[in-house]
Structures are given as C-alpha cells and as structure tokens.
Fold each of these.
Amino acid sequence: MIMTRGHKIFNIFNLVLLGVLGLSMVLPLIHIIAQSLSNNTAINAGDVSFWPVGFTLGSYKLILEDPTIWIGFRNSVIITVFGTFINLFMTTTLAYPLSRPEYLYRKSILLLVLFTLIFSAPLIPNYLLIKQLGMLNTLWALMLPMAISAFNLFVMRSFFLNLPSELLDSARMDGCGEFRILWNIVLPLSKPAMATMGIMYAVGHWNRYAEAVFYIDHRQWIPLQVRLREIVFTDQMGQSDVSSELLQLLSPEGIKMAVIVVATIPILCVYPFLQKHFIQGMMVGSVKS
C-alpha cells in the first residue's frame, strides 16, 4: 500500500496525540514514585518533580512496619482472587446458555439482566439484604453481591455468539454434555474474553472501597483501599517506637505517595501476564461473522 501525504500526516497526528495521552497518564505516576522516594526537606520545599531528591526508603519502611497495612493487603488479595473466580464462574455459566438459541426463556432473562444494568438498587435495601443474609463484617459482602456485572455478561455473551454452532453440534453428536462442551471446548476458545473480564473484575475488586465502608466495621476485615484512605486523608499510621522515630524525619506527603505506590503496583503486575489475551479480548463482540 502506497502511503499518501494525507496518510503520513494522519499517522504523525495519531503518534503525537497518543504520545501526549500516554505521558499524561505516566508522568503523574512517576511524580508519585519520585515523591515517595524523596526526603522530608525536598518534598516540603517543592523540589521534587520526576526524579527523587534526597533518596530515602523511609516511607516504605514505615508502611511495611504497619501491621494494619498487611491486614488490608491480605484482605484485598483474598477479595480479588476469590471474587474474580466467582465473577468469571457466574458470568460464564450464565452467558453461555443465554447465547444458545435452543435454550428457553433466554430473552426474558436477558431483559431482566438489562433491567439491572439500567436501574440499580439503592444503598439501604442493599444493606438490609446483606444484613439479613448474615454477611455483614465478612469478606463475602464484598464478593457475592457483585458476582455478575451486567455489562460484562453482555460482552461475554457476544463472544459466545461468535463461536461456530457447527463445532458445538458436532460435540453433542459425539456424546458430550453441555458442561463438558463448556469446559473442554467453549472455555479454551474463550481465553481472550476470560482474560479481559478477569482484569476488569480484578481491578474492580482491588479498588473496592465504598462497599467496605458500608458493610464492614471490624478492623481485621477492612481491605487495603480503606486503610489507604485513612492514611491519605487523616494521616493515621500504625503506632510503634520505630514508626514514631521515622515520622519525625519523613514528610506526610511522602508517606501518602508511598502508600499509593504500594496499593497500585500489585494490580499492575498482573497485566503483563495477561497482555496478549487482553489485547485480543478488547475486540470481543466488535466483529460479527
């Protein structure tokens, strides 16, 4: 294909635009990391931009010595891992039958799911339901009520609709049941969609905050994001002899930035392992054969 002058200008424009957008997303993170690694004097003087000034790991040492950070980290990992598994299991097992024309009442169920996408229940009825189910002050309150996202369900169903029906019919002729077809045929072909849904669900669980504030009062079950909020907005750090000594040498802003980095890095580490499938999954439902 011969590149015309218009195509070259368009490509240059896209390159510049995407570069500016990329920098606008990366530079704030770099600034946060630089502040978390800078000393008290440099931060208070406003000398920190995109490179640490007066390099120190004191903020991270203070955070890692706070036991409540580890409690919140443990709870967030449990919520993210098990919550994502529940999400993928429930979304897949509902999206698959809704994508098959031979199943009855699928249109009625789709309308009910669409209703929940447009209208959501208020906070008080949700709270009363969680209380009646005995899930207050448990991690289940942060996983089971959000077991299925209506939007992700429609995306997954759209992917299943693109699977060749001849493949599924031949499996049935070979004696495969529906669960075996789903496990051995449909799911292996759905890795891009599963990876995309998994990342979306995992990020949602890792950043879960409002529900934890409403449903959990016991300190041993709060997720990391709630603990992060306490540090960022109220400067509440764990009390110990070592931390009290460090607090006199560190800037509160540096501690806050370090907490943000600690809370962000774990979920960022998941993306490289799923990048290949995630890029493919972003095209789910966009092309219909």
Amino acid sequence: MTDREISAAQLKIKEWYARYGRDNLPWRMTDDPYHIYLSEVMLQQTQVKTVLERYYFPFLKKFPTLKALGDAPLDEVLKMWEGLGYYNRARNLHKTAQTLIGQAQGAAPTLPTEIDELIKLPGIGKNTAHAVAAFAFKQPVPVMEANVKRILCRLFLLKSPNDKHLWEYAYRLVDKNNPFDYNQAMMDIGATICLPKKPECGECPLEEICNGKKDPEHYPVKKSRKVPVREQNIQLHIYDDKLSLTQRTGKFLHRLWGFESVEMPQCATRHIGMVTHTYTHFKLVCNVFAYYETEPEQEHYFSVSEIKKLAISKVDEKIIKLYLHTISGE
C-alpha cells in the first residue's frame, strides 16, 4: 500500500466519521482523561450499549474524580461494578487511582500523558494506554481493539497475525494529524460495517484498498475452541431466614461476597436445584444445596435485602433467585 493510497484512505475515513460516526457517545464529548480512561476500561469485553445504559454515568456520579475513586473503599467500587464482570478491571481502576493519589503528593491526581508511563499503572495494557494517549491527549498513535484488528486483517490479508505485525500495520495506517477521529472511526467501522459475519463492504470507506473484500470472513481465521465445564457444589448455610456469605480471598472474584463451595455437601442438606453461568474461558455448573442450621455455625449472615447491598457475582445472584423461588413454593 503506497503513501498516496494511505493518505486517500485517511481522508475517506475522516469524511465517513464526520457523517456516520457515533460522536454523541459521552466519552467522545469530553477531554477529561479520567472519564476517557474509565470508558476504555469498562468497554473491555463489554458492549457499548451495556456500559452506556447501566454503568458509566452511575459510576461517575459515585466517583466523579480519580481522587474520589481512590479514597473510596474497594467494596464500594466493586458494588458499583456489580454485573459488569471481569472484576479485576474494577480492582485495577481502584489501585491505579490510589497509586496516582500517592504520586500527586497532595495535589489533584492525574493520569500520565506518555504511553510508557501509562503501561506501568495497574491493569493498563498496551491498547488501553494507546487509547488514553490518543483520545485524552491527542497523541498520534493507533488504537488496537478487536474491531480494529479485524479491519487490519482484512485490509492486509492476515489470517493468523501476531500482535507485533498488527501494531506495525496500525502505526503505518494511523492518521497522525487527526488521531482522535481516525481511531474512533476505525472502531465504528468495525462495529457497524466490517462485521465478523456478513460485512457490508459496499458501505465501507476502506473498500478500495481492502485486499480481503472478496472473501472477508476468511480474515482472520477463527480459532475453534471448546469451552470446558466446571462443576461446583454450593452449600447455603441458612439460619433464622438469613444466608451465610464469605468474602472471597482467591484470585478469581477476589473480594466479592459469595456462597460456600464444598467438595461434598453435608448429609442434612437438601438439593434445591442447579444454576449455570458462562465465563470467557469456562462454563460453571453449580449444584445448590440448602442446609438449615439450628445454631449459627458461620461468621456472617445476611438477609436477602442486606445481600443486595453487597458486591456479589452474577452466579451468586442466580443462586439467590433459585433460593427465593424455592422458599416461595414451600
């Protein structure tokens, strides 16, 4: 691809974005680095619609600044994140805010402007660092999320590219004079036109230079994988109409409240049903057992209304619904 072809493509991308781009998204209408950083983290593995409708504005209302976020207890942050999944994102947001507060030494904490410094912060990888640099600080760098990767694979006939090659192509194609609109446009083109299935190539501003337009669904090659299934026995400890929950300490769902997983339920338990939940890398199947205690045997007990104030996972929400359904039929 020649420099002239790249310049022509950049102009078409710019014109397309001016006409069709989703420039009314709130994180595209602000120059606040914290707001932009938050949106980038929330949008990892999560659709724009979900973030916009349920999480972005409530989170900013609760934690309007980096300092407010860093000063808040982690449990409050996790509660505001509840249902969004991938809770390490919330923990790293909180840890980053605390790190920046410490570095500010009494001044208002701010995100660094350079990619190398951004990557040093908890949970900020190469793409998030590039996105914050491009959108918050208008640096002439590309963004590399899933939609952009797909576009690059089709443009340059890449079936199984590695990240190094993708970044090389991304830097070659980026509009250094207009990185904000260019990167937003590339993400929008991938989200609305250059789709994984049945892409609308005739509507794409990159059609003329796209080498993969004759057979776009072959780029990149899809990796087939079988999602493993994990089974757990969940034992509900119930005393005086309250349920026992513990705060997890392991890496998975760390600091979220949840129900006890046991190897073998106690003899006096009653099987009340099963719940399933699919994560990115596995499917979880939970056999749920109720154990009614005559004396409190655990440390923490909560009513259902109290549990609603705790940060819990989606699978634990499903377990509570199963329990409520069970007792309503008794």
Amino acid sequence: MKTQADKLKELIKDTTKKDLKTRVIAITSGKGGVGKTTLSANIAYALSKLGFKVALFDADIGLANLDVILRVNANKTILNVLKNECELKDIVIKINENLVLIPGESGEEILNFADEMTLNNFLSQLEIFNDYDFFIIDTSAGIDKRVLMFLEAADDVIVVTVPEPAAITDAYAMIKIISEKKDIIYMILNEVSSEKEANNIFGKILKVVKQNLKSNFRLLMLGYVKRDKTIMTCSTKRELFVKEFPNIQVSEQVFNIAKKIAKISERKVLDEEKGLAKFFKRIFSGF
C-alpha cells in the first residue's frame, strides 16, 4: 500500500514544464534585524521597474509583514487556498503593473494540507504566474527547519547580513548549512559605511568559507547597500525608498543588485530546470 509520502514522491517526478521561465529566489538572513524584509520588498520593486514581472511571497513565519511595508491589506493567505476557502488568484495583491504580493503562512499549518489532491489543485492554479520572471520569497531569519525547506527548494539563495559580529557569525552559520545542499549562495552586505567595508567583511567571510566548506562551493557577493537614514525614514512611513527616492545612492545600489539578479537568471536559464511547480512540489515533499 502506498503511503501519502510515496504518492507525493511520484507527483514530484511528474513535474510540469509550463512554468520553467519563473525563477524562485529566497532571501534570508542568519538573524533578525538586518533589513532582510525591507531589502526583499525594494529589490522586488526594482526588478519590476526594470520591466520584469515579479511575485513577492511573504514566508516570514511569525512575522509576516510585507503587506504592512507595501501598504496593502492581506485578508487571506496561501493557507486559505490550501483549505479550498478561495483560489490562488483571490489572495494575490497587485502592487504595480509588474509586481504582486502573495501573503504567506506558517509551514506548520501547510503540513496539515499536504496531500495529493490539495497539491494537484494548488499546482493547477499556478498557471496565473506562468508569464512571471521572478518569484521572490522573504523567509524568516535564522536556522529553522521550515526556513531551510524554502531555501533548499529555491533556485537561488541570497543571504543578507550587516557589519555586526553576531550578524556575521549567524550569516556564516546559515551559509554553512545551506552549502550542504547548494553549490552557490549569494550575499548582500547591508547597512555598511562604505564599499571598502563591504568588501572587507565579505573577504573575511569568504576566507572562512574556503577554509572550511566543500571545495566546489562558491559564495558570491551580489552587492551592498550603505547605511542611510532615508531607509529608516521610509520604513517608518511604510514607503519603499527605491520608489520614493529612486535617484539617491542606496536606491542605485538596490537597482544594481536587481540588475545582477537578472543577469544571473539569464545565464542559468539554459542550464537547469526551474519553476514554481517544481518549487512547491519540493516544499510539500519536505513535509
């Protein structure tokens, strides 16, 4: 007799190829308070302004607040979809012409609905994102089984840290664990005083990585964002700084990061299969 897990494994093998265009990117951090969610929202917006279609998924378990940052009301989440209380299209919130928000929910709650029928129904609804370029996930901070599940399933992982000893130590701990499943991880240095400081910190982390992690693993610096009071002011006002002040230095730094993400995606698109169906099948099978 086949168990639920066996059926889900069979379903994984039957991955559809309709949504290979969409690249799933998880943005995470070793600890809270490093600006991960603020960066996720601003990077997603920057990509949308560059002409890419972007879906931003709030998977910050216990602290889902992208709806607050984006100044929208999220009445239902992905959990309501899994409960068949509504369809996926009903929870999607339009932010601008190229950007939408998908309110998320706790992985523990999803566990209760991880069966073949629910998964099939959910995957059939992913067609609404077939023409999207990026599916960006704002995960919780820290090393948690639910967080690692999202990171392992994503096409790319970006780790955010700041120039504080505790944050750097936690970022390395996160990188060490993810490196067991990924050959490449990207890093963003946030709240740095200068490019020199960003490069120095990254250099020290990279040195430890090369000394201690597997030889074929690569840690690449995606970019940095300087410390700027405008970011704090915009966060307090629930505004995206790249939207309100697109020409200031920190906004240009975020746009540079967005452009690098786009180039990385272009290089990888011919090398591997990707897409939302594959991502969510991995998530469900993780339970």
